[in-house]
Each structure stands twice: as structure tokens, then as C-alpha cells.
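Lab meeting minutes (informal)
Scribe: AK
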Amino acid sequence: MNISRKRLSGAVEENIISSEQANALFEYFQAKSQDVPRFTFTHVLYYLGGLIAIGAMTLFMNLGWESFGGAGVVSISLLYAAIGLKITNTLSAKSLNIPAGICATFVVCLTPLAIYGLQQWLGVWPDDTVYREYHRYIKWHWLYMEFGTLVVGVAIAWKYKYPFLIMPIAVTLWYMSMDITAMISGGDNTWALRKLVSLYSGLLMIGLAFWVDVRSRRKVDYAFWIYIFGVMAFWGGLSAQNSDSELSKFLYFCINLAMIGVGVLLIRRVFVVFGAMGSCGYLAHLASDVFKDSWLFPITLTAIGLGIVYLGILWQKHEKAITEKSRQMLPAPLRELLEENA
């Protein structure tokens, strides 16, 4: 729930709290939420600047850096990392946790470049690919860069404990699943295989995110980025599957509905967004293919929609009783997680 000054003023008008209590509560919530990412101008500047800096050393890296040679790339990467860690420590000492976390993440994102430069320097780079292709193509020899990034990422995340540091770790796990598949398959990495790997690696990442979510339920949100990339990988792999069976398409619809339910239960919007897109895609398939010329389909769909609205009304009326009874049947850690997110 968004606690705003307007809401607190309303409580004052209803004589629930005094004006002094409202001001004290507002200052308390402001202090508690200053390190929580929000859509404010300050936070937009933080993340925009950070992502530009990270993108400059990753996605937008050009061939000009190849002219420095392996030793030059390693040296510049280490210099950048030292500057990044220095800024991180300075910001951390001033309790500016969001920009400190972004700077620490910048250091982690330098790791693949440094390892690439080291391999070039030692003359062990296996082919003529260049660093800028790391984020575009699937290659087995990216694994050295990925393992190194995981080690550095986990070490820095362990030291600084900023949630944004989980982002490069989650991305690397996603990349690694594809590159390991390329290595196991001997380079025969077909599109069908990629879809299956994306599906199952996404499931594993969602499981990991849930485990992290339960373990860190009383701390900051470390599971956010793992959920993001896990759901993206799972839903992308699931949606890319080919099937001529209406039963399998209906099963896909049910899985997307289940994703919406999980998203509501865990208060994770990423499940709801992707589940809603998949559900709408299935309904579009019914309208354009299965019931293309049926006048009854829109009427039936309208009735189903209104029925769901009525179900929402019933749920709102009995939500407290149903929630309390159902949570009593859950394990204590999961029950605490749901109560924390409520």
C-alpha cells in the first residue's frame, strides 16, 4: 500500500490519528522507504545513469576496444573496477544505498570484459569472435566469462548486500544455461533445443527465486531480479513451443492463468504481466481460428468475463476468512512470506 501524505491527512480528518501523529508517521515511512526503488525523479536519474554506464561496457561496446589488445583491455577493466569500488564505498559510507548498489553492479558487469581481455592476452581465445558478440550469440567458450562473473558477482553481493547486484547474476545464469547447452550438444544448438532449455532453466530460476524470497523475507528484496529473468525465460520458452493440438493450447492457457494466481499470491507483478499476455494470446487464437465465424463466442466470453468479476466480488467479501484458514495449512516460512507481502 502506498502511504502518502494525502492518505494520512484523510485519517486525520476521520479523527483516527492526530495531525502530529500523521506528520511523524509520514517522516517515518519516508525514512524507511528511501532505499526502496521508486518511480521518483531522483531514482530515475540513479538508474538511468547507472544503466548507461553499464551498457557502455556491455551491450554498447564497440570494436575500438580491440585495438588496446588483451593486456590493455584487462588494465582498463581493472582501473574502472577500482574506481567503481571506490565510489561504491564512498556512497555506502554516506548511506546512499541505491547509487552505491548501482556502482557495485557496474563492477560486476566489467568481469566478462576483463576475462575476455585476459584470454586474449594469454593467447587462449578459441576463435575470431569479439567481446561485443557476448550478449548476442550463444557460444560454449563464453562459459569462462560467465563462471567468472558469477564468482565476482556472488562475492560482491555477499560483501555489500545490495539487491540490484542480483541483476547481473540472474542474467549470467540465463546466458549460462544456453551456453552449456551449446557445449553439451557439440554446437548443434537448434531452435527447438533452445526453447526447451529456456523453459526448464526458467523454471529452475523461478524455484531459486522462491527459495531466496523465503530466506530473505525479513530483509530486502533479493529475489526480484531472479523472478524477472526466470519468468521471462520460462514464459518465452513456453510460448515458443509449437503445437497443433487444441488441448495443449488450452493447457498453455491454464498455465498462464496459474501464473496470474501465483503473481497475486506472492505479490509479484511479473507473473501477472506475462500470464495476462499469454491468456490474451490464447483468447485471440480462439477468436481468430477456432470460433472465427461464431456469433456465440463473444457472448460466451462476455459471460465468462462478468462471471470472473462476480467471483472477485465474492472473494472480496470473504477474503479475510479464506486467507486466514488457508494460511494456517502452510509451512511457517511460507506463511510469514505471504504475511510480509500482504
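Next up, CB showed the second protein from the same session:
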Amino acid sequence: MALAQLTDSALPTGAFAHSLGFEGYIERELVLDEGSFAVWLGAFIGQQLTYSDGLAVRFLYEGVDVLELDALLSACLLPRQVREASVKMGTRLLEIGAEVFPSAELELYRDLVTTGRAAGHQPLAFAVVARSLGVPLQEALAAHLFATVTSLTQNAVRAIPLGQNAGQRLLRKAADDVAAAVERIPHLTPDDFGAVSPGLEISQMRHERQRARMFMS
């Protein structure tokens, strides 16, 4: 039940305000309907969610120091808006976690953030809370990735726009991509961390200079 609450789309982390780059593709008319968004979402799952978020969650579960992982994420998330989005949502999740899912591990990471020694990235905040709750790694990976996909799909339904049924079809298809990512992540190495397509990162960087936009990233 705690994991369901932690990954609920109604959890007030501010995810509704971020496109994590797909709005730039809408502006360039590369994403304009259900099919084209499905292509973008599949690429995003297979790239950024796998090689940044997913690996960060796995490494924290395996005992890598949270301060080291926090610094690596700050370095690997090259687009400023995406890096700031991760920190904004992560900081909010740390605040929520401190109230409803308190633990010594969470308090340690939160202290590092409040004292300026760490940024407070969302996947690490999630992983700290999930591990303290005793959630197994595979379940934590699937939950985090699918929660991110759900937020992005809900935002795409508003922005493109798409119908609600289209959103549900997209989520069903994305579930297979998430499952594939969860299977792949345990076999990756530290050298794979942050290996994201330059095209995706360039599009995310262009977003902050876009003429008009709905989202913060």
C-alpha cells in the first residue's frame, strides 16, 4: 500500500509541470499524435529512464553512496531544465517522505540536501524511501519507471492533445517497454551510467528557448 501511495499520480511532487523534453518535439511537429508520442516515449524509456534513473535506483540499492550517486546524476543530466526538474521533484519527494515514510536513511539524504552537500534527485529520493520500506529492487524499478511514464502520458494527453482512451492504450504499450528496461538494468555496468542519446538531450536543451510552452522542462 505504501508503494502504491508513493507512485500514485496524485502524489504532489510537481510532475504535472514537466514534459522532460517531449514538448520540444511537439513544437517541431515530430510528436503530434498517439503514434508519434508512443515512439518518443519508447525511446525515453529505453534511454534516459534506463541509463540514468534506473541505474541510479539500482546502484543505491546495491550500496553505492548516495552522495556519490547524487553528484553523478547532476553531472549526467546535461540539459539544465531536466536536471532542475529532477531536483525539484526529488526535493518535494523528500519532504513528503519525511512526513509519511520517515527513516534514518531518508533523514540522512535529506540532511545532505538541506545543507547543500547534495542536490536531491528524484530517482534517489524514491530509491531511499522504497528501500527503507523493504520494497525489492525489481519492484522498485518497475514502480518508478512506470510512475514516470504515467505522469508523462497524462501530460501528453493535455499537451498534444490526446483522448483519455489513447492515454490508456499508450500506458498498456509502455508497460512492455518498462518491463524490458527492468530486465536490462541489472546487466548494465557503471560505464553505462548516463549513456543517453545526444538527440534527446539537444531537444531538451532547446526547450528553455522555445517561443511558447506549457511545461517547465
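CB comment: The chain has a mean pLDDT of 96.
No objections, moving on.
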